[in-house]
Amino acid sequence: MEQARGERARQAAEGAQDNVDGERLRRAIAQLAAFGGRDDGGVSRQTLTDIDLEARRHLVERAKALGCQVAIDDAANLFFRRPGEQDLPPVLTGSHVDTQPVGGKLDGAYGVLAGLELIEALNDARVRTLRPVEVVCWTNEEGSRFGPGCMGSSAFVDPACLPRYRTAVDGDKVSFGDALDRALDRMADVPRRAMKQPLSGFVELHIEQGPVLERAGVPLGVVTGIQSVRWYAVKATGVAAHAGTTPMEVRLDAMAACIEVAHRLQAEAARAADSGLRMTLGRWVVGPNSINTIPGEVEFTVDARCLDEQLLARFDAALRGLVAGHAWRGRMELQPLFARAPTRFPQAMLDVVAQACERTARMAGKPSPIPLTSGAFHDAMYLADHCPTAMIFVPSKNGLSHNAAEETAHEDLVLGARALAHAVAWLACA
Amino acid sequence: MEQARGERARQAAEGAQDNVDGERLRRAIAQLAAFGGRDDGGVSRQTLTDIDLEARRHLVERAKALGCQVAIDDAANLFFRRPGEQDLPPVLTGSHVDTQPVGGKLDGAYGVLAGLELIEALNDARVRTLRPVEVVCWTNEEGSRFGPGCMGSSAFVDPACLPRYRTAVDGDKVSFGDALDRALDRMADVPRRAMKQPLSGFVELHIEQGPVLERAGVPLGVVTGIQSVRWYAVKATGVAAHAGTTPMEVRLDAMAACIEVAHRLQAEAARAADSGLRMTLGRWVVGPNSINTIPGEVEFTVDARCLDEQLLARFDAALRGLVAGHAWRGRMELQPLFARAPTRFPQAMLDVVAQACERTARMAGKPSPIPLTSGAFHDAMYLADHCPTAMIFVPSKNGLSHNAAEETAHEDLVLGARALAHAVAWLACA
């Protein structure tokens, strides 16, 4: 029985993988990119805008044409279901189709379209899976119009979040709740379904958005987890004064104090870099910010990420020590802004994905997949709290995303879709 | 003859000094501060605005009432002349009445009003000076509405500057030339006179705008010179990228590079601080300035000042070396923005001012004056290229200026006016 099921899973996985059609995937990507397409090759399709709703309608029509059952939940997450032999919890794949104000064709959209390609490949291979296979299109992953990001996936996992999310407003003072209700009205023909439904597993295919795979010359990456992150603001308050008339020994120069602390932080981060710590001092606000005035107020942000939570805890302690122990007569404060622990995908899921990527690479004569961690957040980060979850990455040219220049070789996109098809079909049968 | 002239100078100087009327000075300061006065006690009177022109009209009327001949030049500098026995080059005093967008009652205005108080004191003492005494009100010292500052005084000394100044525009795209022509039209009843007229000397009384006198507990400072200054911009160009997905070893983080250079610059400045070097890194522009994006572009300014030009030249070489020798793979450039050599006032003028301050302090039972250098620019910096020049400082509370909280004890303002009266009357007779 065990062996028979394994053989069935292998056949389904290979049938799905081998029936992925690269040209069909290319057309699907181009068609979706037309919704919000820009002259520079980028895409502007922020969540729940008219363009986003039209793109979703396009996906609904395509899913229906493939024979899928279509459903929507209270967060406007869309689900396209290919029934299985038994009414078991489905295996879910997919991602999001919203973009940053200026994004590319692939961030999110690739994962959704590879999911629909998988459905079409299963149809072509006439595979019947034991469990249903579903493709999801999560709402507002980017968080650029309404913060925070990953609203759809996190509300799916914890529906108690939704009332809070509904109060978020965009730059035009439209609330997420109003935008959501409008979207649900427009999709009134699509049956509503409950949030937090049981799932057998979730596999998300995504572009890497970093340079690791490109630099390694490897087309497929097995994502072992998502880094933890901590965000802080360091604020120094001194006294703004005339740059010419104020002797050095009486100054309370907030910038000088921040440079000292930032320099020590950089030394701290450099010591931990080999262990995978990434630190960015990204946003600086200097007051009054004038060439001949000593800065009286400076605030800068610290973004620290690592897969090793202990290392991040040590960094946190070092940062607190630096800010509390500064030898400055002015005021310096540390404000923690956000923290999330690391996500580690379960070994059984990594094995399924590694096996799928291995076969895909071998059949294409490409180097074996490598394990890597995700530096960016993804919907999979929240799904990992709900069901066995995994991710597959394909390379990003120059590591770029959130940029019209976002690009992945089409050949690599096809390999990613084949690996996804193998992994999902396997999980749906094993 | 020599001795007789010395005795006459002494009598004129002491007569002027002793007839300075503190209450009259207080009223004059309050009256002028009403032009552009703010609820918070500050003054907003930017150059050649309607408020500034009304303030100038007020001064013209007062000068006429004191019996002065009033004249204006092509830069709208106003001159109030008390004739001398002979038509020799006059002794000039005064300052400016324009302010920063938010300034105080004293920066500039104090020097002009103390000049008019001196005229009134000479009248009261019935002193006839050998040379004429003039009070000047320079145009656009602050440079906040139209850059650069000290336009009026520098054009007086070098009229060839004026055509270039006329093209400067303010935030509303009004040119300095148009604002100037409008001011000259409004003052059409005031006789025009030539620029660059010969002067016997120039003495400017000003608030210190720094903390040195206050900290020393001394009401009068003999300004020995004005620091030289060099302004630069350091610009680093890297690559903006995702803070989460970009490994440390592939980053081109412009902020990290600038912190390294800024930190070394601070160490360099600290080594030279005992020799009087003052360094300020005042303006920072970071792009894209987002918490989770590695900064791709950072530009910061360097303001370095010192009375020792050689020390500043060594700092310049160190800065160039740091920027050229950075161990970073990105681009880093140094752009010199402005440089001015130090001003040293002639010893003979320092002696006249020191003698005036000594007597004033002694008669008031106050500590002797101390020598100090000016960290800020003043109109006297340009006049020093034209005639024997000197400056007198009075304390600034907490070293503040360019601020509504700018303040000097009235007692000290009166001492400054007495010292100015002594020095100018002396020069006008000696």
Instruction: Name the CATH architecture of the largest domain in chain A.
Output: 3-Layer(aba) Sandwich
Greatest contact pair? A-B, 58 and 58 residues
Pattern of helices and strands of chain A: HHHEEEHEHHHEHEEEHEEEEHEEHEHEH
- Share in helix of chain A: 25-40%
Tell me the quaternary state: homodimer
Largest pleated sheet of chain A: 9 strands, mixed
**CATH classification, class level of the largest domain in chain A:** Alpha Beta
Write down the overall mean pLDDT of chain A: 95
End-to-end separation of chain A in angstroms reads 11 Å
CATH topology of the largest domain in chain A: Aminopeptidase
Counting H and I runs of at least 4 residues, what is the number of helices of chain A? 13
**Which spans of chain A of ≥5 residues are poorly predicted at pLDDT below 50?**
none
β content of chain A, as a range? 15-25%
CATH superfamily of the largest domain in chain A, by name, is Zn peptidases
Name the structural class of chain A.
alpha+beta
Radius of gyration of chain A, taken over Cα atoms and rounded to an integer in Å = 24 Å
Beta-strand segment tally of chain A:
16
Which structural traits does this protein have?
homodimer, alpha+beta, Aminopeptidase, Alpha-Beta Plaits, 9-stranded mixed beta sheet, 16 strands, 39% helix
Describe what this molecule looks like in 3D.
2 copies of one chain form a homodimer. Chain A has 430 residues and is α+β, with helices and mostly antiparallel strands. Chain A has 2 domains: 2-226 and 343-429, Zn peptidases (Aminopeptidase), CATH 3.40.630.10; 228-340, Alpha-Beta Plaits (2-Layer Sandwich), CATH 3.30.70. Chain A contains 13 helices and 16 strands. Chain A has helices at 2-19, 22-33, 50-65, 109-124, 151-157, 162-166, 176-186, 212-216, 254-272, 309-324, 347-363, 379-383, 410-429; strands at residues 69-72, 78-82, 91-96, 133-138, 201-207, 221-226, 228-237, 241-242, 278-280, 284-287, 293-294, 297-306, 331-340, 343-344, 370-374, 389-394. In chain A, the strands form 3 sheets. In chain A, strands 1, 2, 3, 4, 5, 6, 14, 15 and 16 form a 9-stranded mixed β-sheet that branches. In chain A, strands 7, 9, 10, 12 and 13 form a 5-stranded antiparallel β-sheet that branches. In chain A, strands 8-11 form a two-stranded antiparallel sheet. In chain A, helix 4 (109-124) links the parallel strand 3 (91-96) and strand 4. In chain A, helix 2 (22-33) runs antiparallel to helix 4. The longest helix of chain A has 20 residues, at 410-429. The mean pLDDT of chain A is 95.
